[in-house]
Specification:
The protein is of the alpha+beta class. The protein folds into 2 domains: about 15-170, Sandwich (Jelly Rolls), CATH 2.60.120; about 185-289, Arc Repressor Mutant, subunit A (Orthogonal Bundle). It is about 50% helix and about 15% strand. It contains 10 helices and 8 strands. The protein has helices spanning about 90-95, 100-105, 120-135, 145-185, 200-210, 215-225, 230-245, 250-255, 265-275, 280-289, and strands spanning about 15, 35-40, 45-50, 55, 60-65, 70-75, 85-90, 115. The strands form 2 sheets. The protein has a 5-stranded antiparallel beta sheet with strand order 1-7-2-5-8. Strands 4-3-6 form a 3-stranded antiparallel beta sheet, with no helix packed on it. Strand 3 and strand 4 form a beta hairpin. The radius of gyration is 27 Å and the shape is elongated. It starts with 12 loop residues before the first strand and ends with a helix.
Length: about 290
């Protein structure tokens, strides 16, 4: 590990390999140190960061920690050794450079996830930067801190670029999810008995939206936190209850209108969600209305 000999206003910077001198992901969680970790491998773990939901780290990741945000790591089982690099630095170190200071202001925020999952080329670039910093730490060079700031600036830029790419992808997910929900809700209320719904499965919606079904499922889950199938089932169940309560259509007609090939399929679906059969649900409603 490298630590500048001087503790002058130029600030402090340290770089090490994870595991070096018994350093782990949890090391250097002091409030006066920023920390950037490059996790290349290790047992799946979770990062608790501020008010955000726990963030799963189960593949190579770059993690940028703001010391002012409460955070902690949870590693349930250390079956795979954690490998990678990390660097820590204080506020004086980055404020010594106006460029680095500006980048830090953009990068470190409590509202954004501090975990990024680089693509293969991005990962190699960042890995090379950390390896170079660790190598430079053992060399004598008068302007070593400026060299580290240069490397750190490149890491900041790469991280901000990943965030922008991720945000663009999330916007794309949001558009697809919105289109899916619009198509789903547009089928209801159903026009019985002549016009049953046509879009019944995730693949039906994917075909209509001209996207792969896996991409649709990922987009919907990313944007809403629920699966495509859950959205479809919830909408069909809500419509089924409405039809049973407020229309005189038979259970068979309702089943057909909601896209079930056989009434028995509809009966199983309804019992799964309501805990009772469609007929009993209707009888109980009529009994108490």
């Amino acid at each position: 590990m490298y630590t500048p000999a001087s503790r002058q206003p130029s600030g402090q910077f340290r770089v090490a390999a994870i595991g070096e001198n018994k350093c782990t992901l949890e090391s250097y969680n002091r409030r006066d140190f920023y920390k950037i970790s490059l996790v290349m491998s290790g047992s799946p773990c979770q990062l608790y960061y501020g008010a955000l939901a726990p963030i799963e780290v189960d593949r190579p990741a770059l993690v940028s920690i703001d010391p002012l945000v409460p955070h902690s790591w949870s590693v349930p089982e250390r079956t795979i050794r954690t490998e990678g690099y990390f660097c820590v630095f204080d506020d004086d170190f980055i404020r010594n450079s106006s460029q680095l200071s500006g980048l830090a202001n953009r990068l470190f925020t409590a509202q954004e996830s501090p975990v990024y999952f680089p693509e293969k080329e991005e990962l190699q670039f960042i890995l090379d930067l950390f390896a170079r910093m660790r190598s430079d730490a053992d060399n004598d060079y008068d302007d070593k801190d400026d060299l580290f700031r240069t490397h750190l600036s490149l890491i900041f830029h790469e991280t901000i670029r990943m965030r922008r790419t991720e945000n663009l992808a999330n916007n794309g997910f949001s558009r697809i999810a919105t289109a899916f929900v619009s198509l789903l809700r547009g089928q209801f209320p159903v026009d019985l008995p002549l016009r049953p719904i046509k879009l019944k499965k995730a693949s039906d919606f994917a075909d209509r939206l001209a996207v792969h079904v896996n991409h649709l499922n990922a987009a919907v889950h990313k944007a809403t936190g629920k699966s495509t199938t859950s959205h479809i089932s919830e909408q069909i169940f809500a419509e089924a209850k409405s039809l049973l309560r407020f229309t005189n259509y038979s259970v068979a007609e309702i089943a057909f209108g909601l896209g079930f090939e056989y009434q028995s399929y509809f009966n199983r679906f309804f019992r799964k969600h309501a805990g009772t059969t469609p007929s009993d649900f209707r009888k109980n409603f009529e009994k108490y209305k």
